[in-house]
Amino acid sequence: MDVVSSTPVTLWADFETSQGLTIPDIGSVYYSLYDTRGTALVLKGDLTPEAEATGVSIEIDALHNILPPDRDFERRLVTVNWIAAGRSHSRRIVYRVIALPLHSVTAADVRNYLSLGDDELPDEAVDIFGAQLAVEEAVGKDRMAEALSSGTRLELRAERAIMLAAAGQLFPSLRYRIAQSKTDGTAKFERLKDPEAFAALVDATTDELSAALGLLTGTGLAPADTIPILIQLTTVARDPITGDAPVGAGT
Questions:
Q1: 206-215: per-residue pLDDT in tens?
Q2: Is the terminal CB of the chain with fewer CB neighbours within 10 Å at N or C?
Q3: Which of the listed residues 98, 117, 146 is the one where a domain comes to its end?
Q4: 0.85 cut: is pTM over it?
Q5: Do the beta carbons of residue 215 and residue 153 sit within 8 Å?
Q6: In the 8-state DSSP scheme, what is residue 64?
């Protein structure tokens, strides 16, 4: 998950082990918070879950989520430790601290484009920030910032490019999820279960993203070799569930 710099965040940690959820011993729960360099920002901070609770919320102060001006993002690692029935357990939670985005693209925009529901594609599965960085790398950070604050059609193109890149980066995992839904009988990904429809979506996304990047660079053409990077569609020789060769594989 991403947290905007200088804002607090509330995390949730389940007391889950390989044997399932546990109830921690009283007074045994604590957490530590580390920055990108592994420096402890909070060391063994006490946590007090409710009685018989199988999870606990963790409040991270805004002071621990400040992004240095020379960085695009920073990682934070939270470790939660507890004792249950005399045995020690721990779990890790990772999040990114990012600058306030200049765009308004959300995971819901990506779901709308793909015609998927939030049960099929939850927010945490969509990496908007990663897509933003990928487009910035293709276009140039300064040029992208100028476009996103232009108040013109170019701003709309820039936002559209981020959304398309975020959607495109999901295609490899969508192949797997679609194949899995075919075998387990779940009524999900109905629009994309047709291999030809999926291939058409990949092609349409690639073409529109290429055009948007061309407009953003001012050349009318997408920068060389950027589309294969932004559309992370790896060659799939065999369906990961059925073993069949999908239509359009490798396109």
A1: 889 988 998 8
A2: N
A3: 98
A4: no
A5: no
A6: G
